[in-house]
Structure formats: C-alpha cells, structure tokens
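Entry 14. Ran structure prediction on the chain below.
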Amino acid sequence: MPFFGRLDAFDLTIEDWSQYVERMCYFFQANKIMKDEKKLVILLSACGPSAFAIIRSLTYPNMLDMIPFQELTELMEKHYDPKPPLILRRYRFYTTKREDRVSHKFLDLPEKAGGKM
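Output, structure tokens:
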C-alpha cells in the first residue's frame, strides 16, 4: 500500500517538535492510520537517528514498543519545549513596563503605514 505524502526525519534546526507531531498527525490522517501501535512504529522508524537516541534515553528502562504513542509525543514535547518555571513567568509578568499613555501608539499608526490622517 503506497503512502500519501512523506514523513521526513525530525530536524530541530528546521522545525520544533510540536510542528513535527502536527505534520505526522496529518500524515496519519491522509493514510488512514488509526491504531496507536502503528503510529508508534512509524514515528520510531521515521524520526531519524538523533531523535531516536533521545527517545531511547528518555524512556531508558522501558521497551519502546510498550510506551503509548501519545505518552511518547508528550515526553518529547516536554524535552524539547519545557515549560518555564512559575517564578520565571511571574518575574516576566511583573517586570513588564506599562506605557504611560496608550493613545500615542494609535496616533503613530498612520505614519508607520506611510500615510497621514
């Protein structure tokens, strides 16, 4: 059975993990692949050697075929795009500066667009 589309190896310099998983899900839809076992096997065979090595190191004591597809993609998402700590998010929130006047931003818009009102 020929496949529609192509699933390249994961390359962090081109796309992030969430984009790769999204493309993979579209690939699965186009080829009517519904079973998680088959999705897992395709992911492991298509992800490329560097991503495969990271997957193996993140799931070390377990066998790769025993981990559910969804769990594996979430594990890789946490590895490649970790959520910043709460204290850092609070720091960023509280150190943002508010503009004294918001209205001057709207007055500058026509000039930035190249015209005058």
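Residues 17-30 form the longest helix (14 residues). Will compare against last week's run tomorrow.
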